[in-house]
């Protein structure tokens, strides 16, 4: 607890130290795919003609994310959808603009016989981000299938998907729940992708989005990650519309040019690996859908979370004012 408080204080201090000027649009996100179009926007100076510089800031864990929000020094935020709902329900001045990541989670294993989540019963599984998106989806799927996450699995929580990936690569564990691009990078690092002629070290296993669709009798997609707007910027409609137009344009280019896009992204996120990142793009369900148009999917997802753990979304479904329109 003390370490988490210290981390929050340090993050707020650094954010204040490097406060933006009025001509800078600060965007923040994790190293995951949802952030990559924003990094491309920074590199291409996408808002230069409007007199704005785009500045990307990385948040490495949920504590850093919350500290950035509390400091009120971020204009646009790449964020798990449930975290955005939680912040809104706690009174944070935030609106959801879109959902752009609909599938990013999967199991990786050394045992090719394991195909579904149920097959991992009794196994030790490394899991990033306790109580955040990977853990949330895994937990709901397990419960829906009659599994007890405390009795039926040995869950080993780590700070990030990169940490979980490194444990797999170093053979410290045999099974992990990972988010792309960590899955593809792990397969590259162990020469398991596409496949060795001899048995590979690691295998793609259960696709959690596919299992979600099967278990809940819905389309195989989950509204997992989004772009939100914070604070005063949310009153500037023309700027928001232009920002999202540039984000969508960058997302399309990212999907169509995976090799070149990966080279650019790795310049900002050197903890990634360009070949693995390039591989990952075809394995992520990327589609920018306006938040208001994704409301039904979001409310179904939030409803599942509310039924099982209301705290994950701040206790209730967000009001209509949460959805930017």
Describe the structure.
Helices cover 41% and strands 20% of the residues. It has 325 residues and is of the alpha/beta class. It has 2 domains: 2-102 and 224-274 and 281-322, Periplasmic binding protein-like II (D-Maltodextrin-Binding Protein, domain 2); 105-216, Periplasmic binding protein-like II (D-Maltodextrin-Binding Protein, domain 2, 3-Layer(aba) Sandwich). Helix 6 runs parallel beside helix 7. The protein is globular and about 55 Å long. The termini are far apart.
Give a brief outline of the structure.
By secondary structure, the protein is of the alpha/beta class. The chain has helices at 2-17, 36-44, 62-71, 81-89, 133-144, 161-169, 182-189, 208-216, 237-256, 258-268, 274-280, 295-308; strands at residues 24-29, 53-58, 76-80, 94-103, 105-109, 124-128, 154-158, 175-179, 203-207, 225-230, 285-290.
Keywords:
325 residues, alpha/beta, D-Maltodextrin-Binding Protein, domain 2, six-stranded mixed sheet, three-stranded antiparallel sheet, 12 helices
Series of secondary-structure elements, N-terminal to C-terminal:
HEHEHEHEEEHEHEHEHEHHHEH
Strand order of the largest sheet: 2-1-3-10-4-11
Radius of gyration using CA atoms only: 19 Å
In the predicted model, the low-confidence regions spanning at least 5 consecutive residues are none
CATH class identity of the largest domain: Alpha Beta
Q: What's the name of the CATH homologous superfamily of the largest domain?
A: Periplasmic binding protein-like II
- How many domains? The number is 2
Measured between the Cα atoms of the first and last residue, the distance is 39 Å
Under the CATH scheme, the architecture of the largest domain is: 3-Layer(aba) Sandwich
- Seen as an oligomer or otherwise, the chain set is single chain
Query: How many strands in all?
Result: 11
β-strand percent reads 15-25%
Q: Assign the CATH topology of the largest domain.
A: D-Maltodextrin-Binding Protein, domain 2
Report the sheet with the most strands, covering strand number, pairing sense and barrel closure.
6 strands, mixed
